[in-house]
Amino acid sequence: MKPAIRVAVTGAAGNIGYALLWRLASGDCFGADQPIILQMLEITPALERLNGVKMELVDSAFPLLHDIVCTDDANVAFKDCSAIFLVGSRPRTKDMDRSDLVAANGPIFTGQGNAIEKSAKKDVKVVVVGNPCNTNALIAMNNAKGLDPRCFSAMTRLDQNRAHGQISEKLGVPVAKVSDVVIWGNHGDTMFPDASWAKVDGAAVTSKVDADWLTGAFEPTVATRGKAVIVARGASSAASAASSAVDHMRDWWQGSHGRMVSMAIPSQGWYGVPKGLIFSFPCICEGGDYRVVTDLEIDDRTREQIARNVAALSEERDAVANLL
Ligand code: NAX
Q1: What's the pTM value of the predicted model, to 2 decimals?
Q2: Under CATH, what is the fold of the domain 157-323?
Q3: Active site residues
Q4: How close is the Cα of 87 to the center of ligand 1, in Å?
Q5: Nearest residue (CA) to ligand 1, atom 27
Q6: Is the predicted pLDDT of residue 91 greater than 80, yes or no?
Q7: What atom of ligand 1 comes closest to residue 108's alpha carbon?
Q8: For residue 97, what are the contacts with CB-CB under 8 A and spacing of at least 6?
Q9: How crowded is the C-beta side of 194, counted as CA atoms within 13 Å?
Q10: How far apart are the CA of 131 and the centre of ligand 1, in A?
Q11: pLDDT at 115
């Protein structure tokens, strides 16, 4: 058995946390031979709820779960961590627009960025789930300047999984046969699900569906799926978000086996995206690292969609300039 690694989850007493922790503890993310120590962070008023979550984890008797830490101190939560899921943030309420959300959550991620730099392992892998996740990751990364920026990422995997799910339903094939939809940009209204390179059982998806379906149904359905889930369920996506966070980290940790996976990561200028923006690109994961697939020949429409996302993310970045 390998030595246990430390894994932190923030907002661990929340809805996504409740689905995520069990998947981590069961070995779905880091492997069936990799024990973990879960280090769970919450705000002080939620510590009692967090203790209830810990009790249930203990009661689940996971062989791979070697210890559990509950804390309201980010430095304790991130101490010696190899992987961190930044889920906790203030949810958007009806009276808030996106800029209010950015303003409310920004300060959380300055403190957590500092604490990650101070306390986590130098090669830690961080995925930000809490919204607005691209900009929250940008803030955390900029407040941990002693770490490699490649330690930081934000989650667009739920958007990619939603896209694969739509194609699977449309073509009546198991979702495992669908691959390589690319999510470009922001996990937000401008996000662009691009099926140009998507495959179903090795064949191009574009050869199996009408172009009109892609632009008229697929793209808007994927882009508005979060809202549709809220309307139908009366609550925001939680289990699917947790599952996608596991997919994101699992592939980064264990490799994506040649499949393109979408990860929002600090741009190095790929596809004309300004350096440093946290932007979703097609990536291939291998050997505990990712590389961006940089040679896709994109058309004018995709170029426009990328530019829209650059504009939206640049605006968010400017709104938090004082936190960077
Ligand atoms: P919940 O409100 O159920 O849970 C959030 C938890 O975070 C709460 O327990 C709260 O006490 C805690 N928290 C707040 N501030 C904290 C801080 N400073 N440190 C530690 N913990 C803190 O929300 P949940 O449904 O779990 O969603 C969490 C976040 O994920 C939200 O920001 C949500 O918008 C975002 N999502 C992101 C998605 C993505 O694809 N990137 C999709 C799902 C989800 O909407």
Answers
A1: 0.97
A2: L-2-Hydroxyisocaproate Dehydrogenase; Chain A, domain 2 (3.90.110)
A3: 187
A4: 5
A5: 16
A6: no
A7: 18
A8: none
A9: 26
A10: 7
A11: 98
Q: Which CATH class is domain 5-154?
A: alpha beta
User: Two tokens at 122?
Assistant: 């130098």
- Asked if residue 126 has pLDDT above 90, the reply is yes
Ligand 1 close to Cβ of residue 15 (< 6 A): yes
Cα-based distances in Å from 147 to 4, 75, 78, 105, 144: 23, 16, 14, 22, 6
* Range 31-50 average pLDDT: 97
Cβ of 9 closer than 6 Å to ligand 1, yes or no, is no
Composition of the chain by helix, strand, coil, percent to 5: 50, 20, 35
Instruction: Let me know: does 276 contact 152? Beta carbons within 8 Å.
Output: no
Would the CB of 187 count as within 6 Å of ligand 1?
A: yes
CA distance 158 to 196: 19
Q: Domain spans of the chain?
A: 5-154, 157-323
Establish whether residue 14 lines the binding site of ligand 1, counting it when its CB lies within 6 angstroms of any ligand atom.
yes
> Cα dist. 61→7, 18, 242 in Å?
18, 16, 20
> Same CATH topology for 5-154 and 157-323?
no
